[in-house]
Specification:
9% strand; 5 helices; 3-stranded parallel sheet; 3 strands; mainly alpha
C-alpha cells in the first residue's frame, strides 16, 4: 500500500481499531495518533497500551470481543466531538515521538 493511500485511509476514519496479539509496540497506534484518530484496543494488546489511555486517547476494552469493542466504537460514531477530542489528545501524545528523540533516549540510558 502506498503512503498516500495509507494517509487517505487514516484521514477518512473516525477511529482505528488495533488490538494485536504479542505485539511489542505497534506502529499503527503512532500512525493513527499522527492522523489525530483515537484507538480502540483491548486490555491484553501489549505495547499499544503504552500510548492508549482509556477515555483519553481512545478506548480500551476488557477483552478483544465484538460486543466490548462495539461499546467504544458506538460512542465514537455517535459523538463526533468526542472522537475529535480523543484523537487530538493522541496526536499530542506522539508529537515529539520521532527517531531522533528515540535514539537520544536510548543513548542516555547507556
Amino acid at each position: 500500500m502506498s503512503d498516500e493511500t495509507l494517509v487517505s485511509l487514516y484521514n477518512g476514519a473516525r477511529a482505528v481499531y488495533y488490538s494485536p496479539v504479542d505485539e511489542d509496540f505497534g506502529l499503527v497506534t503512532v500512525e493513527a495518533f499522527g492522523a489525530a484518530k483515537p484507538i480502540l484496543t483491548a486490555a491484553d494488546s501489549g505495547g499499544v497500551l503504552e500510548l492508549v489511555r482509556d477515555g483519553e486517547t481512545g478506548f480500551v476494552a476488557e477483552r478483544a470481543e465484538p460486543d466490548l469493542i462495539a461499546f467504544g466504537l458506538r460512542a465514537l460514531l455517535d459523538d463526533v466531538e468526542l472522537a475529535r477530542r480523543l484523537g487530538e489528545r493522541g496526536s499530542e501524545s506522539v508529537r515529539d515521538l520521532n527517531w531522533d528523540s528515540v535514539v537520544e533516549r536510548l543513548l542516555s540510558n547507556v
